Automatic annotation (TrEMBL):
Organism: Pediococcus pentosaceus
Alphabetical list of InterPro entries matching this protein: Acessory_Sec_prot_Asp3
A Pfam family hit: Sec-ASP3
Protein name stated in the entry: Accessory Sec system protein Asp3
GO biological process: protein transport
Gene, per the UniProt record: asp3
Length: 272
């Protein structure tokens, strides 16, 4: 089954245009501005292959995509002025040479991976941009039937994925990771609303703060469920821990089970 991918702001400092830039982080968003930056420069960059020759090496930050396949890319960002940022993808062969020139895309567009692609780079290009508020990039197979939504802060993320052709779900599996992924892979499931909860166990987030952030994310999920008229057959979620159980993991599992059960009971079998 094909995966959907969520890509966050570059981890490495050489992945962002820093000279003269003002960059701030707030509630899972990255605010970027640089009025002196020349048009055509890359605001931020990601690589699918690590650069071992660099003193500040990039980690693999892009998912592996299939040759010859078509994908949908959505850059979830607010841009001032509109159309002042574009996407450029550079597909590379085994020699590191560009295949068929650079692909230029809008922030919501489709592309095909050329045959012979061994790696690729993705850049957000400045077109006289005055301000960018970045959430994430979502890459999905063009023909996917699954929809994906994210709720995140600096150290916490919840990803929901479901069949967009369905509005009634028999299961709500919840996968818990004690680390946030800079590039996460998420797989949908038929007749299920899948949730992935990720948090950085190394952060200074207290258990109370973690619980509060999770409750806020689930409140946003409730709004999404209501907006899309979703309904459920499950009485309770089915949590699955992808990490060694510790106090924070158990807290997330308990809080998620309680808060999600409220939603499932309220929207159980309802039609709007």
């Amino acid at each position: 089954m094909n995966s959907s991918y969520v890509v966050m702001w570059p981890m490495a400092t050489n992945g962002t245009y820093n000279y003269g830039s003002t960059i701030s982080y707030e509630k899972g968003l990255v605010n970027f501005s640089n009025s002196q930056m020349s048009p055509g420069e890359a605001i931020s960059s990601w690589k699918s292959k690590q650069d071992f020759d660099s003193n500040n090496a990039q980690f693999n930050q892009l998912p592996l995509l299939k040759e010859g396949e078509q994908y949908h890319i959505v850059v979830n960002a607010e841009v001032i002025p509109s159309d002042s940022v574009q996407v450029q993808i550079n597909f590379l062969d085994t020699l590191g040479e560009t295949i068929d020139g650079i692909t230029t895309l809008s922030l919501d567009d489709y592309f095909e991976v050329p045959l012979g692609t061994q790696a690729y780079d993705l850049n957000l290009i400045n077109l006289n941009n005055q301000g960018l508020t970045f959430k994430n990039i979502v890459i999905t197979p063009r023909d996917t039937k699954f929809e994906i939504e994210t709720f995140s802060s600096c150290t916490f993320r919840m990803v929901s994925i479901w069949d967009k052709e369905e509005d009634f779900f028999e299961e709500v599996p919840v996968y818990i990771r004690n680390r946030t992924l800079n590039t996460g892979s998420y797989i949908g499931q038929n007749q299920a609303l899948r949730l992935y909860i990720e948090f950085d166990s190394r952060s200074l987030l207290t258990e109370t703060e973690l619980q509060s952030e999770l409750q806020l994310a689930i409140h946003d999920l409730k709004d999404m469920v209501e907006e899309r008229n979703l309904a459920f057959d499950a009485f309770a979620p089915d949590p699955v821990s992808l990490a060694k159980n510790d106090e924070k993991v158990m807290l997330v599992e308990k809080t998620a089970s309680i808060e999600l059960a409220k939603i499932l009971h309220y929207y159980r079998g309802q039609s709007f």
